[in-house]
Each structure stands twice: as structure tokens, then as C-alpha cells.
Amino acid sequence: MRFLNDFGRRAMAATAVLSITAGLALAGDPTISADQIVNALKPKPVMRGITVVPNTPQFDPTVQAKESALLDSVRNRAPRSLSLDEREQIAEIAATKPKIDLEIQFDYNSAEISRTAMPAVQELGKALTDPSLKGATLVVAGHTDGVGGNSFNQDLSERRAETIKRYLVDKYGLAGKNLIAVGYGKTKLKNTANPTDAINRRVQVVNMDVKTAAK
């Protein structure tokens, strides 16, 4: 079963814009809180009395085992070491998981986090230390806009994802093995109609755990 840049970007100060991809948008808020990030990433509760479809990936033990095997195979690996197939498998799993997009600005043509983006990164760090996310396996996926070549953007997205992971490990004591950094370059634009849109320059964080809370 198959699980499944911003080269030339203008150096402009920008606010951190966040959108929750599960349908709720919180665009344009530079003061997004750790609580909002936690709520986006927490496993969704399963209501008692609701019929569970056994072959739904969320509940299928075979699917869960394959997902776990893939995640275990990419733990503690540098983003550049991941194959195209592994990246696509991660993306396919991530499509069904709680996730959040943070438009984190970096210094021009660089993997250094800009000063304007630091508050958003710090709120992310606080969120990921919340007890409800303790021990979760999280994917940190870097994405660029559509400007520039494929190779350049792929490398830049990988370095940026690794920068965020390293910051979270160093500053917030998160376990490196639980943070999987991956880069997608310009292959997964959020706004395909406008490849240069800043919304495409983002870091997506995905809670890959399959645990749910019953209510």
C-alpha cells in the first residue's frame, strides 16, 4: 500500500499568518497563541455512540502499523536524506491528520528565522510542550513559493524545516526523535493560482499520532 522559494523573494517584513487547514482560517493574526496551535493539533475526540467504520484509516490496525513503520524509518534523519517516495508517503499520511500552517518568514534567501517571525515560532514551541501533545510524533514540513528552480527550492525548504526543528529541540527541550523535518520545495503550493503568494511560504506542523480521545 502506498501512503501516500523562494529564490528571489523580496526582503520585506511580514507578519506571521496562520491558517488551520481543517477548515478554520485565522489569517492575518501576528499574535497567534500557543493555545490556538494546541487546539489545531490535538487529536479530534470520538463521540460515544458514533459507529466506527473498521476500515477507516484512523481505526484500521493494518494502516496504523504501516504508518508507524514509515515514521520509525525516517526518525532522526536529515530532510535531505528522505527520498521522493518517502516524502510523498509522509504527505499522504499527513493529509488525514490534525495540522496547522504557520507562515514563518525567514531572512532573504536564507534558512535563518527572521525577527518578525520569532514570536510565532516561540508560540509554536510553547504549544508543543503542552501535556496534551506530550510524546506525539510531529512532522515539520517546509514549503516555498513558486519562484526559482526546483532544486534550489527543495534545498531551501529542507534547511528551513531543519532550522525550526533544531530551534524547538534546543529552546524547548523537545525530543528530536519525535520531530520529523521534511521539505517539499514548491511542489505543494497552497495557492496554485498565484505561485508567488506569500501563503505558499509556510511551515506546516502535523500531529501524526493516531490516538483519539473518547467522549
Question: If you had to describe this structure to a student in words, what would you say it looks like?
Answer:
This protein is of the alpha+beta class. It has a single domain, classed as OmpA-like domain (60s Ribosomal Protein L30, Chain: A, 2-Layer Sandwich), CATH 3.30.1330. Helix content is 31%, strand content 13%. It is built from 5 helices and 6 strands. The protein has a 6-stranded mixed β-sheet. A hairpin with a 5-residue loop joins strand 1 and strand 2.
Low-confidence regions: 1-29
- What gross morphology would you assign? globular
Q: Strand percentage, roughly?
A: 5-15%
Span between termini: 32 Å
CATH topology: 60s Ribosomal Protein L30, Chain: A
Supply the CATH class. Answer: Alpha Beta
Number of domains: 1
What's the SSE pattern? EEHHHEHEHEE
> How many strand units?
6
Biggest β-sheet, characterized?
6 strands, mixed
Whole-number average pLDDT? 81
CATH homologous superfamily - what is it? Answer: OmpA-like domain
Structural class: alpha+beta
As laid out across the biggest beta sheet, the strand order is 2-1-3-6-4-5
Oligomeric state of the chains in view: single chain
Layout of helices and strands, plus pairs?
Layout: E1 17-19, E2 25-26, H1 34-41, H2 61-74, H3 84-94, E3 99-103, H4 118-128, E4 138-143, H5 150-172, E5 179-183, E6 202-207
Parallel strand pairs: 4-5
Antiparallel strand pairs: 1-2, 1-3, 3-6, 4-6
Helix pairs in contact: 1-4, 2-3, 4-5
